[in-house]
TrEMBL record:
Descriptive protein name: Anoctamin
Compartment(s): Cell membrane; Membrane
GO molecular function, one term: chloride channel activity
Membrane topology summary: Multi-pass membrane protein
Record lineage: Eukaryota, Metazoa, Chordata, Craniata, Vertebrata
Pfam families given in the database record: Anoct_dimer, Anoctamin
Domain Anoctamin dimerisation residue range list: 14-197
Domain Anoctamin transmembrane as annotated: residue spans: 200-836
Length: 884
């Protein structure tokens, strides 16, 4: 415990030095095996290290008036907390502590001058660097509490909670901050209330406080994305009746008369298009005109989120005295592990002091080994994904063979919904999710080992390296399956008679095809299973497992009264909050941020699911910190660290992925091209789109290896009357001089897709523009003179290479304009920072002047006493007056 001893009578006749290390050293636990040592830092120790760490403390009450009341502020009263909870401390102007100027600061009580979070941080700083070897020995690696914990000398080291969480402390001097946090923050019925961030910071430290501030702000911003997503989904539901495409698929006279080619070799039979009626309706819910709007909205939303967070973060930096936070002196202090393992010394050019360093050859070797390990695990993920893809290709034929007579239709409620495509997609997604969890569990330990092996110099460098390794792995692990469905499935299929196989024809694993309505609904299924599954598993791990472990660990002691079941024993029975605890909390939220931004065009309800999860996440995390975990050692942090850069990268990448999803995964662009250039009749309508998007193939030309086995074909199929089958592509029909080659409509659609992507991108995508330009030039020289009036749509498409110069990439222009328009630091905060710096200089100057006056006065008094024994000198008063 870094605070003041709670039982002064147990101190006995110990001296102050003994009290610093010998409090309660003989207290036994209930099992008579565990002994507790309570550490207390006296004032001199706290003052000395507060000076070393440059901890800011108050020197003057703030004279800046409070913000004016906002109109209609009464509307927010139900969401507010009491002022004593939201602002547990008055506002002060602060300055770095200087032990030589103690009387400059507002010190009313030395025992409470430094808050508990500062006291336990100072004590932990000392303990991590305290040697325990004898001076005449060379065992200098015996340093710090971490080594003692690793070798089992101590089982744990932790600060104490101030009281029980469900009732206030009996000592009236105790502030019972844990109780207030549980009552106003950790209760699940407080989900609609604001968070007491100042109290969190005071009790747990700035690093944990900034995490909850970010999580709360992220949850607030999700509300707007969720509302817009719900609106887009409702639009899809209400536009059901206007969906001509689905009506044609379900129509027995249209979709029921279209015979489709087999989707796999041997085990798959010919099938009618109207069998996909239900999936076409499902696709329309997410693949409609609102999809494009929502993708563009999310591109702007993510910019607003990041920019407004910077402003919120700047305000917290000022309010929590982190503006002049010197990382070199606090967060960037050399790790004890680095000092022990690096035996070489060299001169620091800045400090002109000798410091440990890692030789360059050793650093290179460790870096290469680390990179090779990360590359191996990344390749392992890719191999697992390839295995899941092979499973999808192999099992689809089995499902198609089993379900050819529709045995699942007998299942109540959901029987009619089960198709070979759905069964394959759901089972593959579940298997992929299990693989993700297994690989995550294994790689966590590997990433920590790799980072330790590199021997980072500072705490911040250690966290940043671990963050990058874990996120890169998690990015590939969680998103690779979604990338496959979004950008690879159905893109390299071939056509009847010339199908493409995954590992060559010998593997007999024919690449998957998309349904007539596109692959977007399957991407939605994949995203829903992985995202929702991760959230459910995460909540169980965070809430249920600590509860069960604590219940089992405290089963003996919880029946004893407080007098025998002491505060340190109660806290010892709680779960330890490791140094990576906050890291995993950030990682979970950043992965979720990727789900709702990278693939949100396929699932507009993803922000709504994330909102519900985060409302629960805030209270679950608060409940864990106050009831299930030991009190963590306080740490300072002025921002969310490397996670901010990762969020920026994900935000930029999200615009690219959503543009490609709308262009290549969704069926939106082909429908628009048909509507404006290839529609039948004089009026622009979607009638006939399904027939237009399917090509013909002569059944007699299909190789035997691709034909269904005997007995696989349905009873309605007759070779003599059905001579052609349809497949999803834009190719010339059999008998045409260019049979089975791409039609002009295919090139028009491709050019429109590339144009859409260019409009959505931030920088000039030279490769895509060049490709689009070459395609259009080819169309101009080879085909334009032979086109009819309708296909002169390509003449208008010739402006695509020039259009980006005019549009300047609409979404990203808006994105960066908004980023430029919103300053990172509010003007009010800038003014307050300047005001505080001015006051610090002014008060320090006045303090030094007053101190000089006192010294001169004392010197004059001594001179007067001496002069009384000597003849008087009339010039002394004049000299003193001039000096003052």
């Amino acid at each position: 415990d870094a605070g003041k001893p709670k039982n002064e009578q147990q101190l006995g006749d110990f001296s102050e030095e003994q009290q610093a290390v010998e409090l309660f050293c003989n207290n036994e636990s209930d099992d008579r095996k565990t002994y507790y040592l309570k550490i207390h830092a006296p004032w001199e120790v706290l003052a000395t290290y507060a000076d070393v760490l440059k901890i800011k403390v108050p020197f003057k009450a703030s004279d800046i008036p409070k913000a004016r009341e906002v109109p209609l502020e009464w509307l927010t009263q139900p969401f507010r907390l009491p002022d004593n909870i939201m602002r547990p401390e008055p506002d002060y102007f602060t300055a770095p502590f200087d032990k030589s100027k103690v009387d400059f600061f507002l010190i009313d009580d030395k025992d409470t001058f430094f808050p508990p979070s500062t006291r336990n941080r100072i004590v932990y700083y000392i303990m991590t660097r305290c040697p325990y070897y004898k001076e005449d020995r060379l065992e200098k690696d015996k340093t710090g509490i971490k080594r003692l914990l690793n070798n089992g000398t101590y089982t744990s080291a932790y600060p104490l909670h101030d009281c029980k969480y469900w009732k206030k402390a009996q000592d009236m001097q105790c502030e019972s901050e844990r109780y207030h946090l549980y009552k106003y923050w950790a209760g699940f019925l407080c989900f609609y209330k604001e968070q007491p961030l100042n109290l969190i910071k005071k009790y747990y430290g700035e690093k944990i406080g900034i995490y909850f501030a970010w999580l709360g702000f992220y949850t607030e911003m999700l509300f707007f994305a969720a509302v817009m997503g719900v609106i887009c989904f409702v639009y899809g539901v209400l536009s059901y009746e206007d969906n001509i495409t689905s009506k044609e698929i379900c129509d027995p006279d249209i979709g029921g008369m279209i015979v489709m080619c087999p989707l796999c070799d041997k085990k798959c039979s010919y099938w009618k298009l109207n069998s996909t009626c239900l999936s076409s309706w499902q696709s329309h819910l997410f693949d409609n005109e609102g999809t494009v709007f929502f993708a563009m909205f999310m591109g702007i939303w993510v910019t607003l989120f990041l920019e407004f967070w910077k402003r919120r973060q700047a305000r917290l930096e000022y309010e929590w005295d982190l503006v002049d936070f010197e990382e070199e002196q606090q967060q960037l202090q050399i790790r004890p592990e680095y000092e022990l393992k690096c035996t070489g010394r060299r001169l620091n050019r800045i400090t002109q002091e000798m410091e440990p360093y890692l030789p360059f050859p050793s650093k290179c070797a460790r870096f290469c080994l680390s990179g090779a390990t990360v590359l191996f695990w990344t390749c392992l993920i890719v191999a697992c994904i390839m295995g899941v893809i092979a499973y999808r290709l192999a099992v689809y034929a089995a499902f198609a063979s089993v379900m050819k007579d529709s045995p699942t239709s007998k299942i109540q409620l959901v029987g009619s919904l089960i198709t070979p495509q759905l069964a394959t997609s759901v089972t593959a997604s579940c298997i992929n999710f299990v693989i993700i969890l297994i690989l995550n569990f294994l790689y966590e330990h590997v990433a920590i080992w790799i980072t330790d092996m590199e021997i980072p110099k500072t705490h911040l460098e250690y966290e940043n390296k671990l963050t990058m390794k874990m996120f890169m792995f998690q990015f590939v692990n969680y998103y690779s399956s979604c990338f496959y469905v979004a950008f690879f499935k159905g893109k390299f299929v071939g056509y009847p008679g010339n199908y493409t196989y995954m590992f060559g024809k010998w593997s007999k694993l024919r690449n998957e095809e998309c349904a007539p309505g596109g692959c977007l609904i399957e991407l939605t299924t994949q995203l829903l299973i992985v995202m929702a599954g991760k959230q459910m598993v995460g909540n169980v791990q965070e809430a249920l497992l600590p509860l069960l472990r604590n219940w089992w660990g405290s089963r003996k002691g919880r029946s004893h009264p407080e007098s025998t079941y002491s505060r340190w024993e109660q806290d010892h029975d709680l779960q330890n909050f490791s140094q990576f605890g906050l890291f995993y909390e950030y990682l979970e939220m950043v992965i979720q941020f990727g789900f709702i931004t990278l693939f949100v065009a396929s699932f507009p309800l993803a922000p709504l699911l994330a909102l519900f999860n985060n409302i629960l996440e805030v209270r679950v995390d608060a409940w864990k910190f106050t009831t299930q975990f030991r009190r963590p050692v306080a740490a300072k942090a002025r921002n969310i660290g490397a996670w901010e850069e990762i969020l920026n990268v994900v935000a930029i990448l999200s615009v690219v992925t959503n543009a490609f999803i709308v262009a290549f995964t969704s069926d939106m662009i082909p429908r628009l091209v048909y509507l404006y250039a290839y529609h039948t009749g004089s009026k622009a309508t979607m009638r006939g789109y399904i027939d237009n998007s399917l090509s013909f193939y002569n059944i007699s030309q299909i190789p035997d290896a691709n034909l269904p086995e005997a007995g696989e074909n349905p009873s309605w199929f007759n070779n003599s009357t059905i001579t052609t089958c349809r497949y999803r592509d834009y190719r010339y029909p059999p008998g045409h001089e260019k049979q089975y080659t791409h039609t002009m409509q295919f090139w028009h659609i491709l050019a429109a897709k590339l144009a859409f992507i260019i409009i959505m991108e931030v920088r000039n995508l030279h490769n895509i523009m060049y490709t689009a330009h070459m395609i259009l030039v080819k169309l101009w020289h080879e085909h334009f003179l032979n086109l009819d009036v309708k296909t002169q749509f390509s003449a208008h498409m010739m402006t695509v290479p020039l259009f980006p110069l005019l549009s300047q990439h609409v979404v990203f222009v808006v994105k960066f304009f908004v980023a430029w328009l919103i300053p990172d630091v509010p003007a009010e905060v800038k003014a307050r920072i300047k005001r505080e710096r001015f006051l610090v200089q002014e008060y320090l100057h006045n303090y030094e002047v007053e101190k000089l006056k006192m010294q001169l006065s004392q010197s004059f008094c001594l001179s007067t006493e001496t002069a009384s024994l000597l003849p008087s000198s009339p010039s002394k008063h004049q000299v003193l007056s001039e000096c003052i």
